[in-house]
């Protein structure tokens, strides 16, 4: 199967609409392959694929896979009894998981894989842009849409490929990159991992499994991450962070509005003064990871500094949707991520009322971290809580979202509300004030609600709508 990617002409994707799958489809499309695929419902990524001429089927059927397909790629979310998957195997069509296909792709170039519980997408994006701005024309596959290119994948002609290595189902062990970046190691994805130790063990295997002469770039400030990396004794490691025990270090950090400034030090020597135009202390760390990669491959630092300074972020990562009032859309769905977004918002909007609108993602995560969620969510001034977005999961406790609400209510009393897609507009109208900043968070479909709320406020500003919950809003609740 070594040359399967090179020899492919037609590829069918089962579950093509997912972030990782659509990135892979876009990449192979730019590589000259004929792509088709199926998914259960329409989405933003499917629309973009259709615009590129990809044949998309809504719903699954064996008839969707044409007779001349050379390979079938399936998402990790696809069950083993999926009719298309069974049909492909019965017809002896080569079948690969997304991770298996991606592992074949990265074998063809010098690969940089970014792994970690949090910060993967932004760090992968920073590195990809840095290499591109340095004239290296990299390929990349990212778990989010890079604002600077309006895409989550690209097939470049240069020698480098940058990928986001998703740990959620353990499939990142398929990758043997030349450089592995580890942003942090935290307990998440309880539907797959039983505890933090299991997560650590998988990351250790991933780090140990990189190419024979591969290098590790690791956040040295994160105790668990550093500890796991130090178990690897036969790979060169670069640690980055704030502490003096890191080879790549930031000093004199100044957080300023939607950006920051700091001095970059490598091996104790000041290399330059860095400007970031994305907010939060976590993005300072993400940029240090990118500079660590630049050091390894010998990228010109002046070019790297300019690239980071002009980096405009990733879709749904503290994405500003409206300025009057401020409305932020963010993918945060783990307590640590929510905390980072809240801290960033506090540093920017010091005298504002932070209204957090949160949609829990997956029953397994909500149940496992329920107390952690309560601790973090109640840091907001006002909390609007949606029911759990199942993401295909089934549960024995359909009232888990309500339980989270009740636990938060014990701590916040009057400033917490359980909302639906129908009731949220009227509630926002009731609580709206000049000092409100709206923070929409979650990995489900809450982004659609955020877009609609932002659109309503913009219409009001233009005089096209009188109030948030006027009769024309009802059509937006679906």
TrEMBL record:
UniProt pathway annotation: Cell wall biogenesis; peptidoglycan biosynthesis
Chain coiled-coil ranges: none
GO cellular component terms attached to this protein's record: cytoplasm
Record bears the keyword Cell cycle: yes
Highest taxon of source: Bacteria
Keywords attached to this entry: ATP-binding, Cell cycle, Cell division, Cell shape, Cell wall biogenesis/degradation, Cytoplasm, Ligase, Membrane, Nucleotide-binding, Peptidoglycan synthesis, Transmembrane, Transmembrane helix
A Pfam family of this chain: Mur_ligase_C
Cited Gene3D superfamilies: Mur ligase, C-terminal domain (3.90.190.20), Mur-like, catalytic domain (3.40.1190.10), NAD(P)-binding Rossmann-like Domain (3.40.50.720)
Stretches assigned to the Mur ligase C-terminal domain: 316-444
Reactions listed under catalytic activity: UDP-N-acetyl-alpha-D-muramate + L-alanine + ATP = UDP-N-acetyl-alpha-D-muramoyl-L-alanine + ADP + phosphate + H(+)
Name listed for the protein in its UniProt record: UDP-N-acetylmuramate--L-alanine ligase
